[in-house]
Write a structure and sequence with these properties.
alpha+beta, 3-stranded antiparallel β-sheet
Length: 101
């Protein structure tokens, strides 16, 4: 049975991820595409002990429907999918107060 990664908030991959997020936020570039590399590195650190591979832009084929392209998938040596990654950016909510004229 594969070993489960024991990640804690103090683990090096987690600390590196948060440092990267802080750097992107400081540069005002905290959108999905900017932070993607940092997140992928965190996922790869978690998947490594399990001998899983992160495949970016994974195509999920479906019968009688168009295929989906996910941000990533975690595959084992037999190409079995153990997890999918798909990030969504939260819509910005305008906080403008409407005042009737």
């Amino acid at each position: 049975m594969p070993v489960s990664p024991a990640l804690k908030p103090t683990s090096s991959p987690v600390r590196n991820y948060y440092v990267s997020l802080a750097q992107f936020a400081n540069a005002r570039r905290a959108h999905e595409l900017a932070v993607r590399a940092a997140f992928d590195q965190l996922i790869e650190a978690c998947a490594g002990p399990l001998k899983w591979t992160l495949v970016r832009e994974y195509e999920l084929r479906r019968k009688a429907e168009s295929s989906l392209r996910l941000d990533g998938a975690l595959l084992d040596q037999y190409r079995l999918v153990h997890g999918c990654l798909e990030s969504r950016t939260m819509p910005t909510i305008s906080r403008t107060k409407c005042v009737p004229s």
